[in-house]
Major facilitator superfamily (MFS) profile domain-containing protein (Thlaspi arvense), 399 residues
Amino acid sequence: AGYSSVAQAGIVKDLGLSVAQYSMFGSIMTFGGMIGALFSGKVADLVGRKGAMWFGQIFCIAGWLAIALATDTIWLNVGRLSTGFAVGLFSYVLMQSCGISLFYVIGNFVHWRHLALIGLIPCVLQVVSLFFIPESPRLLGKWGRDKECRASLQLLRGDEADVSEEADTIKETMVLFDEGPKSRVFDLFQRRYAPSLVIGVGLMLLQQLSGSSGIMFYVGSVFDKGGFPSSIGTMILAVIMIPKALLGLILVEKMGRRPLLMASTSGMCFSSLLLAFSFSFRSHGMLDELTPIFTCIGVVGFISAFAVGMGGLPWIIMSEIFPMNVKVSAGTLVTLANWSFSWIVAFAYNFMIEWNASGTFLIFFSICGAGVVFIYAMVPETKGRTLEEIQASLTDFLQ
């Protein structure tokens, strides 16, 4: 995800890409993620969770090789699309922070082709490690493979554990699930699901239209635009990337979903305003000595605030507000909305910065401000509450 930021200068110089061509390269990953997310559930049901991850790593490896060996925009885009498809199949918030941090550091010292080859390493490691990871017991139970289900549970619980009761419970649950009604996407558009749908899609819209994808994918160009050395800026981000992700995991249980989400969005709002002032001062030749510092504080503040709350909490809340009978369909629709908005921002971002950097961040400031109001008015607190209690609170919007 962070590759397009640190590799931008080298790729543009070596291959002579225009702003439009590099914007397509940077953003097409999200388009691939959109496709991968749509098929992730079906792929996992057909070939298993491990099979889906192996399948995804094939696209990861092929994508990085295509980028490393690319001589034109076609192979660059094919490679980026392929890695995006793999990310759409599986995504890990904490490990994603680790990967972005790593690339932000080594991207300052390594040629972009070599950097793409380094991206192969975690893919190969996961391919090897998957041989030692058991398949999901619930999926094996769903497939009717009771013996393998018990063996997988035994491996997960330990040799001394009695897994008979848990295995029988899984079998009964899967039977009830198969006999129950199957949800479809169109079922979501019933009046009783309207509040959950508005909250789920609304949070994903705010998460992406706040400018997060653009800043994350092209953070080096933001630093350069503000007169702050991009190599130093990305190093600062690399140092704080993992601690802030861990901080978010701790705070979400201390503060609750809703307060942390509001605090995160408020921080993004303030940081966007600071960046807007910073670029405005620079365009008018004012406060030249302070503008780079404002830029650094604004970028670091925005990404930190995003990671602590808005980066992961919409996914948690989405999983908690939809009833079980529509959870799969809701997950598909909400994920598609997220990747769609992400592609729009990632593609348009470079054009917006070229048009007016200050105006761009004023737009992001306005969206974040609207996000704070939306969260306050619509999003319920879900921490420590059962699904029934959450659904009861949401029905108040329908009264």
